[in-house]
Amino acid sequence: MAETFDYYKVLQVSRDADADEIKKQYRKLARKYHPDVNPGDKTAEEHFKQIATAYEALSNQDKRKLYDEFGSEGLRSGFDPEHARAYQRWTEERATSGAREQDIPIDFDFGDLFRARDVSAPRRSRQGFVLAGEDLHTTLELDFVTALRGTRISVQVPAVVTCSTCTGSGEEPGSAPEMCPECHGSGKLQLGNGPMKITTVCRSCGGDGKIHKACASCAGTGLLQTQQTVEVRIPPGADDGSELRVRGKGGPGIGGGPPGDLLIRTRSCASSM
After folding, report:
1. Model confidence at 273, in pLDDT bands (50, 70, 90)?
2. What is the greatest pairwise CA distance in the chain?
């Protein structure tokens, strides 16, 4: 069952927006609706999740093409676009051939449009998206002597730690999963009535058939954001405008995504000597 929101509308961009515009708008909206900026605001949290989901799809050229053609169903793991196109052609040919629905009962499962799931492939988190952390940028002023000799600096950067409340499970302690009210525990939904029966994975429970109560401390992510001090070595001879990349020390990933990088740009300043 596809999401009920339009990715382009969520990011407030036109369908022909370029990659730079999409990235700029994502950063603007993500900062506005981030849970850390709106603590306890469930509406802002849900909107932030939609923003992240939309950006994950539209920032990738291949995913964007699939979304434009098939909607969010085209982004599910193992989706086979050729199979989907063949099914569309079949339905169109059947419609033009004059076949009547009541004459040909059909039971069609959307799972037929997906190849066998690769167990090694990345999975979506319970929140429905996985995003790499953003790169963090900072500028360091160095006088001539310090730049010549090199130095070490300490930088405060965001970090993620396992939630102590739920010990990383993402579930509220003491709670028990409940039967999904949308699919009644089957993990699947049937779309439409009559001879054309179409079934698809229930998006409310992700096919699990159960709804888990999210941990109040970490909003179900199993992780908490904090700060950590990173020591960085600036090599001798750093020029004005030099850029140093520290892998994995940028913003934390979302939904199990990898962290971004820390980028330090040096800038010359007058010597204190």
Report:
1. very low
2. 92
- Residue 137 in this model has a pLDDT that exceeds 70: yes
Q: Beta strands 262-268 and 136-142: pairing type?
A: parallel
Tokens 């020591």 correspond to 231
> What average pLDDT does this structure show over 80-93?
70
Taking CA atoms, 42 is separated from 162, 230, 238, in Å, by 22, 32, 46
With 70 as the cut, is the pLDDT of residue 163 above it? Answer: yes
Q: Tell me the two tokens of residue 205.
A: 């429970």
Please answer whether residues 218 and 166 qualify as being in contact, where contact means their C-beta atoms are separated by less than 8 angstroms.
yes
Please provide the distance, in angstroms rounded to a whole number, between the alpha carbons at the two ends of the chain.
Answer: 67
- DSSP assignment of 137-156: EEEEEE-HHHHHH-EEEEEE
- Please report the pLDDT score of residue 104 as a whole number: 44
SS3 content of the chain, % helix, strand, coil (to 5): 30, 25, 45
Taking the whole predicted model, whether its pTM rises above 0.85 is answered as no
> Is-same-fold flag (1-79; 136-167+221-268)?
no
pLDDT at 22: 93
Return d(Cα 130, Cα 146) in angstroms, integer: 41
The topology under which CATH files domain 1-79 is Helix Hairpins (1.10.287)
Q: What is the pLDDT of residue 128?
A: 45
Does residue 113 carry a pLDDT above 50? no
* Inter-residue contact 273 to 148 (CB < 8 Å): no
Domain boundary assignment for the chain = 1-79, 136-167+221-268
What topology does CATH give the domain 136-167+221-268?
Answer: HSP40/DNAj peptide-binding domain (2.60.260)
Q: How do strand 210-211 and strand 178-179 relate by DSSP bridges?
A: antiparallel
Question: How far, in Å, CA of 35 to CA of 32, rounded?
Answer: 9
